[in-house]
Amino acid sequence: MALGSFGMAQSVKGTRDLLGNEMKWFQRIEDTARRIFHRHGYEEIRTPILEEIDVFKRSVGESSDIVNKEMYDFVDKGGRHVVMRPENTAGVVRAMIQHKLLATSDPRLLYYIGPQFRYERMQAGRYRQFWQIGAESFGVATPESEAESLVMLFDFLNELGLRHLKLSINSVGTPESRPAFQAAFRAFFEARQEAFCGDCHRRIAQNPLRVLDCKVPGCQTALEGHPRITDHLDEASRAHHARLKVLLEALGVPYEENPRLVRGLDYYTRTAFEVLSADLGAQSALLGGGRYDGLVSHLDGPPTPAFGWAIGLDRLASLMQQLHGDAPAPRPALLIPLGEAAALEAMALARKWWAEGCAVQVDTRGQGLKKALQTANRLGFARALILGDGEREQGVVAVKDLAAGTQETWPLDQVAQRLSTV
Ligand code: HAM
Q1: Distance from Cα 251 to the centre of ligand 1, integer Å
Q2: pLDDT at 2
Q3: Which end of the chain is less packed: N or C, by CB atoms within 10 Å?
Q4: Which pLDDT score, from 0 to 100, does residue 330 have?
């Protein structure tokens, strides 16, 4: 049967191909991330896209939207209930436990770059397959470790030329201190319950913190004057929060406190934070993270404090495009041989130059000079290197600067040092 009878295939709704400028920004961002994270001692980890469903149910939480409504889960041919990961923190923790990397109390610093999957309602900046760059640090419970991770994050964002980002922080306390807040919050809720939406009535029973996060404007108004988690913290969490703020101030990382910030995942303890950008429109969250001291032991690992964050790479690339326009791309030279003998010599020369790290492409189409130059212009090459019989006899190439329209002659043995290296 002809394939055409089904019509032209399209990418699945909510997924997209990364190409052209967007792909160039992705590469640029990923290269910058790796360079900066390695400086801080972080090592890369890649975990599988498929995980058992329990990994997320037990970590992100049964009451979260991610687990409740948004998982790409299915039963595989062997009868296993698996999920295409909606986020990477739980998978990294699972891997750390499985490979016994938390057996000692030594700190472990890890980062990842990869696709995540959430069956969400489509909107600008929100996809069903999206990419995250994340960093997780295991083994250190201090506010200093959080400040270190946040400094790395902001060094990275500054290196990309991003400014005017808003860092919002809060403390969501610990499972031990939360009941005191929850009792005060329930009393507040009950006194004005008719003002809250149906979802909030369900949330107050399941996970009261989530009410603070409700996007319905009426609920946000009804929350005016709500009890703050930070006013119901145990002494150690209060000191932790205060110390983090001192460190951020001293290190020049501007932040603001947001008492309604609770995050959509259940595993956080104490510090929770988000970075927003006004340039992102409706989906303004560029990244989020926080401390999750209970997660490793909850997934049956040795009790291990941890802290981390993940950036939405799709959103970051879109910001870069808005701010800086098209991604700068190395524009290699096009080597144009004229005739069969020149074609063979051109291939041999290019191999030598590649070995020396030069960026050059060979025109292998065997077309005339005029057409070859048109191609070079259309594809945006900076230079054309022309190798005809005359040049071969003299051991040179004619070099045309395609933007300026000027031409000069380079001896073959000087080409490598004059071409840009990549
Ligand atoms: P999250 O807030 O769910 O946190 O996601 C982090 C970032 O991923 C968001 O701020 C956003 O930029 C991006 N993102 C999320 N969903 C989508 C989507 N549908 N389309 C495009 N971008 C999206 C986490 O995932 C935690 N694992 C972060 C973390 C790491 N906490 C501790 N360590």
Answers
A1: 25
A2: 53
A3: N
A4: 61
With helix as H, strand as E and coil as C, how does the chain read? CCHHHHCCCCCCCCCCCCCHHHHHHHHHHHHHHHHHHHHCCCEECCCCCEEEHHHHHCCCCCCCHHHHHCCEEEECCCCCEEEECCCCHHHHHHHHHHCCCCCCCCCEEEEEEEEEECCCCCECCECCEEEEEEEEEECCCCHHHHHHHHHHHHHHHHHCCCCCCEEEEEECCCCCCHHHHHHHHHHHHHHCHHHCCHHHHHHHHHCHHHHHHCCCHHHHHHCCCCCCHHHHCCHHHHHHHHHHHHHHHHCCCCCEECCCCCCCCCCCCCEEEEEECHHHCCCCEEEEEEECCCHHHHCCCCCCCEEEEEEEHHHHHHHHHHHHCCCCCCCCEEEEECCHHHHHHHHHHHHHHHHCCECEEECCCCCCHHHHHHHHHHCCCCEEEEECHHHHHHCEEEEEECCCCCEEEEEHHHHHHHCCEC
pTM for the model stands at: 0.92
* Atom 14, ligand 1: residue with shortest CA distance: 312
Instruction: Please determine, for residue 1, whether its predicted confidence score (pLDDT) is greater than 70.
Output: no
Residue 287 pLDDT class (50, 70, 90 cuts): very high
User: For the chain, what percent of residues have pLDDT higher than 70?
Assistant: 98
CA of 409 to the centre of ligand 1 (A): 53
| Residue with CA nearest ligand 1 atom 2 | 288
pLDDT per position as a tens digit, 194-208: 999 999 999 898 888
